[in-house]
Design a protein that fits this description.
The complex is a heterodimer of chains A (about 160) and B (about 170). By secondary structure, chain A is mainly alpha-helical. Chain A has seven helices and no strands. Chain A starts with a helix and ends with a helix. Chain B has about 170 residues and is mainly α. The chains are: A mainly alpha (about 160), B mainly alpha (about 170). Chains A and B meet through helix 3, helix 4 and helix 7 of A and helix 3, helix 4 and helix 7 of B.
Chain lengths: ~160, ~170
Amino acid sequence: MDSSLVTFGSWLQNRSFALAVATSDWAYPFVQATHFTGLSLWVGTTVATDLSLLGMGNQYQTPLQLFNVLFVWNWVGFCIAVLGGFLLFSASAATYLINPAFLTKLGVLIPMALMLHIVIQRKMREWGRQETPRVARIAGLVELLFWISVVSAAVSIPYFG
Amino acid sequence: MRRREISNVLTHFGEALQDNSLIVMLNSVGWMAATLEIVHYFGMFVLVGSIAVIDLRVMGLAGQQQSATKLAQRLFPWMWVGLALNFLSGFVMFGGIAASYIPDSTFHLKMEVVLAAVIFGIIVQWKVPAWDRLPAMPMGAKLIAAISLLLWVGAILAGNELPALSGLG
């Protein structure tokens, strides 16, 4: 299992696009900036929605109304973040695939956070009315903590490198 | 002559920061240094995500079914919270190696872009209610929002250029 992951990683990081990101002086910061711009849209809109479920901030609109405005750009941000993230990953895939912080981030925290995110979005019609049920508040708080833990795992990657 | 005095003051300020025991501790204890980075990134995401959606709304690319004023009133507080988290954590990390940051031209560029982005953010926050009362968003409003958005992307890029060009950060 481990060695096949590393084989895949070595194959990926020798693709021409991965080599281009890894070896060019200017490409890497641009790809990083793409990843972070996508994340800003994704995390910014997600945090705003979760905080509104928690009843924090002003209440000029219901969580559902806010969610309806943010939904499209939430997923646009996700796609940009994944694109940038995949390119960053492919630049040194074999190293990432043996890094415990990276594996925890991608294999555990992101799938769990993402599943909860989708559950919240599907429940929004029910949860996002005037009276937010207790379960919605808990879900919002847990999702917030999940994304903080994803950022924490990402920041920890170099500490294990 | 003036320039030299300012540069002296800045150098002393940088040395004082680097010698400050709290700043030294926050940057040298492993988990505290990691926490600074986490707060810096998370604050940045909240800051840029909030202002970006407001800019996109003014540009006519998001949430046309809802008033821009309502959306801005909801998101601007989070923009300021994000900026405060981002700035405070950034300041402590800067303090840890201030003497290297202060003369660095890429760092100057990053600070200039961030300052310009904050100024445009304030303009957008201040003008949104007036723009929103008009039958359609004026062209100037869309232009200001587009510049605000580009400046934030530019600030992120400048932040990533720092380690690439100067080996800092």
